[in-house]
Amino acid sequence: MLTLDKIYHAKYVLKDVIRQTDLIFAPQMSRDCEVYLKTENLQITGSFKVRGSAYKISQLSAEEKKKGVIACSAGNHAQGVAMAATKSGIPSLICLPDGAPISKVEATKRYGAQVELVKGVYDDAYARALQLKEEKGYAFIHPFDDEDVIAGQGTIGLEILEQLDDVDAVIVPVGGGGLISGVAYAIKCLRPECKVYGVQAAGAASMVHALQEGKPDALPAAKTIADGIAVKKSGELTYQLCRDYVDEVVTVTDDEVSSAILTLIEQQKLIAEGAGAVAVAAVLFNKVPVEGKKVVCLVSGGNIDVTILSRVISRGLLKAGRSADITVELVDKPGQLTAVSEIVASAGGNVVAVYHDRADLDTDITACYLRLVLETRDHAHVEEIKSALAAAGYRLIQ
Fold it and tell me: Which of 256, 223, 276 is nearest to 97 (CA)?
């Protein structure tokens, strides 16, 4: 059984393995509550996952260590297992979904693991890892549904209470549920009045589904930019712990996650992956009732692929109204582009790209389309520019 003693033991075992990450006050994050960020994105390996995997490996028998370990992961658990196993002189094999970010795959290899890419998502990698476990006799390191792994993750809860003993609410990312199970158990045992909220991506809301149905059940698909929490089925043990110790689990959209990543970069100079930013997204978009409270958002990881980061930033700018795409129908004659540009400039917009198209069967033969990509302040500013163009007689194409 999971106990508070086990979590404290995990903390003792891990004291020379992991970093106690900072709790950073983020006053600009919300006007409604006092936000603190638990920066597990700055953990060694760039994610909280090393806590659970390292503690689990420390508890293996000598015979199990000799045979080696196997794990499955969307990426962060893979790196944690690889690092912990290599540090202990144990061979490791990691099954990753073939869609895992290249940066995570390569990092896993650098930590000393052998990697097998499996077609599909996390659940497909899980099935393959179980198959190899039976064939080769490896010790399986589950990414979330294991008491030792959960105890390792629970050490974050102990740290939060040491760093902010009067915390009112803790908001935690949820995939399979290992992180929130450990954190919620530790916090509710030591400070039961503290609320614990979980956050999932809307496209992979397996724990939300399990709590609604009264049992873990596989979703037909798990699709989200938050690849670290793209899990189709929550764990049996984690479901029970979430049911008993978590106050509520909510969802955020990919656009909201993108906005949270952008906010963390601009306001806090922190890089978070999609899964690591969902707790912040829940605060930014008022998904949890934390008005007037001291709130800790757990930023669980920062291992985001740079190519994905650029796309996420673009989505975040659009969601915040910081970027806009406007198409105007014009008469194809000299001076039209200058006139439109002057209107945009006078309204304070900045043109960053221009696309001009004459050929369209649905337009007049003397007409053309002018598509502008603009840098703007917010959604109200976008509407101001559109209104100025319309007032000048230009027809906007929706």
Answer: 223
